[in-house]
Amino acid sequence: LATDAALLGCPQDQGRRMARSAVAAAPAAQSHLVLTGDHVGPIPAATTRAQLATFARVVRDTVEEGDEAIPESVAVLAVGRDTVRAVIDSGRVYYLFVDSPHIRTHDSLGVGTQLVRLTREPGVTGFVYECCTFVHVPRYCGLTFLIPADSAPVDGGAVDAAALKRMPPETRVLQVRISVCTHGPTAPPASQ
Fold first, then answer.
1. Are 87 and 73 in contact (CB under 8 A)?
2. Neighbours of 104 (CB within 10 A)
3. Beta-sheet pairing, 157-159 with 82-89
């Protein structure tokens, strides 16, 4: 968990990391806007730069200043009326970032979800790093919910469910990061 958060950093630049840019595209069917630990709508987390255009329209393909001023390759992809950021390393998608409240899990977790909702999930944990707290919900392997760290009970490091519950309940998810799920379920059973 610590390494995971350290590799990502935080969405520090509102204009670059958390742009809610709309694109001129027809709205996609609801099934294409579902967020899992493996996909953002039609876009799989495990894909290559070359394959991205087969899943979504590439709006921008560029190099941006990443964490600690290290350049990172980024593709911005149109998904319905929203965009998703793909951070690419060695020709493969490393992370997908969702900034839109319209792209959500089957049970409606996503940008804008209150922290109190996440803390009801069994096994929820977090990690405070720089400006964000990275919240992990075990049943959503591959997803990380980013919330502001300014209300975190510690300056850095791991936080358990009890510590997350002490944070202001109105705290909301700012961004969702998707990486390839390496173990466990990526979504709850359809009956939930």
1. yes
2. 19
3. unpaired
Which letter, b or e, does each residue of 159-180 get, where b requires 16 or more Cβ atoms within 10 Å of its Cβ? bebebbbebeeebbbbbbbbbb
Nearest to 77 by CA among 23, 136, 26, 150: 23
Q: How far apart are CA 187 and CA 149, in angstroms?
A: 26
CA angle 59, 29, 96 (to 5 degrees): 45
Which candidate, 127, 157, 1, 8, places its Cα nearest to that of 70? 8
Residue 22 to residue 36: CA distance in whole angstroms: 21
- Look-up of token digits 């991205």: 52
This prediction has a pTM of 0.79
Helix H or strand E encompassing 146: strand 143-148
User: What is the per-residue pLDDT across 43-95, written as a single tens digit (0 to 9) for each?
Assistant: 999 899 999 999 999 999 999 987 778 899 999 999 988 999 999 999 999 99
